[in-house]
Amino acid sequence: MRYPSSFPLWDRSFILYFPPPKEIDWFGKRAFIQIQKNAWHPSKPEGADGLVRATNGGNFSVIIPDETNPDAACTLFSLSTNNYNGWLPTKHVRVDHRQESCCFL
Questions:
Q1: First to last CA, the chain
Q2: Global pTM value
Q3: Which among 20, 64, 66, 80 would be 20 to 30 A from 91, CA to CA?
């Protein structure tokens, strides 16, 4: 999958493997874990697309459905470790640390 990114990540590509989500017990609450793993595929050799191959160190998200409205609200916990094989600027970058709502189909 190629996800268009803005500068300075516009020339990066990832190949990721997403196993199916798994239901887990998250500190006594029903939750789902989605893992993202770094992957390789012979049809996408590194550098063939002219992009820099970034790697994924192992990301995961835990989705905890809201107890009163599980079909419309949830709490999301996520951890990400990526190597973009380059630098990120310290100016003109906005990082959003909080998302008010999310929806999973």
A1: 19
A2: 0.62
A3: 80
Residue 57's nearest CA partner among 83, 21, 79 is 83
The one-digit pLDDT tens for each residue of the chain (105 residues) are 556 666 667 788 878 888 999 999 999 999 999 998 888 889 888 888 888 888 877 789 999 999 999 889 999 998 887 777 776 666 655 555 554 444 443
Nearest to 104 by CA among 75, 78, 67: 75
Residue 44: CB partners within 8 Å, gap ≥ 6? 13, 15
Tokens of 88: 């990120």
